[in-house]
Write a structure and sequence with these properties.
Elements (H helix, E strand, L loop, with lengths): L1 E5 L8 H7 L6 E6 L3 H6 L9 E4 L12 H23 L3 E4 L5 H11 L3 E5 L6 H6 L5 E4 L8 E2 L12 H8 L7 E5 L5 H9 L4 H4 L1 E5 L11 E4 L5 H7 L2 E4 L3 H9 L4 E3 L9 H11 L3 E3 L5 H14 L1 H9 L7 H27 L1
Parallel strand pairs: 1-2, 1-4, 2-3, 4-5, 5-6, 6-7, 8-9, 8-11, 9-10, 11-12, 12-13
């Protein structure tokens, strides 16, 4: 079975694909992306089983009025043409798109070539690319009940429930003598959290602090340990006693499944508002504590201490969210969709030979 994956622009459009690819054993997996950040994440996996990473040009969809939007139809046609060339050569049984601006031309190309396409939305409110892609997709899945057209299938995340605490502590250079505060702000929203931690020195009296700063970011702070990026998040989750994070749906789902109490600070300035909705969904279910960015400086220490002090109650609420994990379910949907396509193709071939 051949599967083409696509999605990019942010890690939230790529790491769910990686989680799903891990489940697609005995399949020929291809990835269509741009020369952007998704290439940095996916290209190394070619040596670990992905057959090929294919590139196309794709342009960001702008929600506001812009002269750039006048050129978008022409640019989109070019991107669709590039995607069609790859798809004709690969001849996949199914396409899976996680969204982002690279996903739209691939989805349109799949529709034009008659290749069944499955798309998935992680956030509480669908992104613009997925809203457009839904018109061309054969199956529209979502993590939450965010769109009446979508089938709720859960969040696409790695298995984070079997991390090793000792390996996590070793990776962070900590001995476990103090509770561990893990800080991760993603890519776009990391700097504000990094700066806030540096200005909240009293947290270091109670916690050992480990900060995932984000690419090309470093903080000048003597009482924290830091790194730009890690690949062993399940081990770090196992070692963490509390986490400070943004509100990407995948991140909050992983923390919930790993039963790490968290304080979530939704990104507002560089988002369409989906992070606020994501945060409210989890906080309303008791899985963490919400801290608005306007109160980051004044409320950070209090919120972190509250999440840690109430960790037993929070973990009980997290344990109850059993339907969050959707990776296995979506993998099964992909296999069924591909199998149906093969049956249809074989039936058509038999009819043509009669």
């Amino acid at each position: 079975m051949k599967i083409v994956f696509t999605g990019g622009g942010t890690a939230g459009h790529v790491t769910p694909n990686i989680a799903l690819i891990d489940k697609m054993k005995n399949c020929d997996v291809y990835y269509i992306g741009t020369n952007g950040m998704e290439k940095d994440i996916v290209k190394p996996l070619v040596e670990q089983g992905i057959v090929e990473y294919c590139t196309i040009t794709a342009h960001k969809l702008r929600r506001k009025l812009s002269l750039e939007n006048l050129l978008l139809p022409f640019r989109l046609c070019k991107s669709v043409g590039e995607a069609k060339k790859h798809l004709k050569r690969i001849a996949p049984d199914v396409i899976f798109s996680k969204g982002g601006y690279v996903g739209l031309p691939v989805t349109i190309a799949g529709k034009q070539l008659g290749i069944p396409t499955v798309i998935h939305e992680s956030d509480m409110s669908p992104g613009l690319a997925n809203r457009l892609s839904a018109k061309f997709a054969d199956v529209y899945l979502s993590a939450f009940d965010c769109d009446k057209r979508a089938q709720v299938a859960g969040v696409l995340v790695r298995d984070v429930t079997h991390g090793d605490r000792q390996k996590g502590l070793a990776a962070m250079g900590l001995d476990g003598a103090k509770p561990v505060l893990l800080v991760t702000g993603g890519s776009l929203g990391a700097q504000a959290l990094n700066d806030a931690i540096c200005r909240c020195k009293e947290l270091a009296d109670r916690f050992d602090i480990f900060v995932i700063t984000g690419k090309n970011k470093r903080i000048d702070c003597s009482y924290v340990r830091q790194t730009e990026f890690v690949s062993n998040m399940p081990d770090l989750f196992a070692a963490a006693d509390v986490c400070l994070t943004r509100a990407g749906a995948n991140s909050l789902a992983e923390l919930t499944l790993a039963r790490v109490p968290f304080v979530t600070v939704p990104l507002t300035k560089q988002s369409r508002g989906e992070q606020v909705q994501n945060a409210e969904w989890f906080v309303n279910r008791g899985c963490g504590i919400l801290l608005h960015e306007d109160n980051l400086e004044s409320g950070l220490c209090k919120a972190i201490n509250a999440a840690y002090d109430n960790r037993t109650a929070i973990q009980a609420k997290q344990r109850a969210q059993k339907d969050l994990y959707g990776t296995d379910k979506v993998a099964d949907i992909l296999r069924r969709t591909a199998k149906q396509e093969r049956k249809a193709a074989q039936s058509s071939k038999r009819k043509n030979n009669m």
